[in-house]
Amino acid sequence: MKMKNGKLGSFVLCALFLAIAFPAQAQPTKKVPRIGFLDPTSLKVSGARIEAFRQGLSKLGYVESKTIAIEYRFADGNSERLGENAVELVRLKVDVIVTRAIPGAVAAKRTTTTIPIVFVGVADAVAAGLVGSLSRPGGNVTGLTSLAPELSGKRLELLKETFPKGSRIGVFRNPSNRGDPIIWNETQAAAQTLGLQLQSLEARNQTELENAFDSTTRLGIHALLAVPDPFLQSHRKQIVDFAAKTRLPAIYTDPEYVEDGGLMSYAANPLEFYTRAATFVDRILKGEKPGDIPIEQPTKFELVINLKTAKLIGLTIPPNVLARADKVIK
Asked: Contacts by 5-12 with C-beta closer than 8 Å and gap 24+?
């Protein structure tokens, strides 16, 4: 199944709904390994990533509902539901849990110390207390880090190059995310170096997100940055539409924002993360201990720019920035 412009086609999304909603239709007679897929967001938000994970398993020879079973659980950006979903997967005695970002990894680790956990896209697993070190994680946790805090400076730098007049940057963040202090501190340090002023736009829930939107005019915000967070990801279309409506240049931490109409993003490719996560699962199912599998760090980062959005908000992308883009949406 092919994806166009990083999005799932309607056929693929329907297929995912059917696979998740009716997993018992092709149940094998013999016991097969079960993966618990613990997602802090929703199927709609994470559909492309799920498909990348399934394709990764397929390349390794696994056939879903025949040689491997996947139990999907989505929290829709609700931290309480995330914890409940983690408990449910542990009760099902899955063989390994795959989860996303610090909230998902923390919820899984709080619930079990024995079932292997593979996280995807955690900013700083050591600082978050998930692992002892990157080379030897220890315990029942391993996975792939996104290096999100270290990229804060690069994102602000790109935003400043793209919109030099903007000195006051509104930062969408979720203080209830355990990784937020790590990312926020890095972002503040980068802003100071670049001579930018940050305004915190805190959003733990829908009400706070709407309040954050309302405060941008009062705070005199010139441009926007959304840090990595499952709640914000779950509402990415709302954030992107707000930025377009107010004609505020914005940079994001995931290319899905740009595919949904955001201006630009700078990050490692999240789909490659999930394809690689399948390899981690395979190694664990074949007997390796998660604590012995080193944390994998990205080596390639992609700049994605949406020229349609730039035109919509009346912004010309400087040639030196556009020339560095890995993908341009026209």
From this structure: 5/259, 5/329, 6/48, 6/255, 6/256, 6/259, 6/271, 7/48, 7/259, 8/47, 8/48, 8/51, 12/47, 12/51
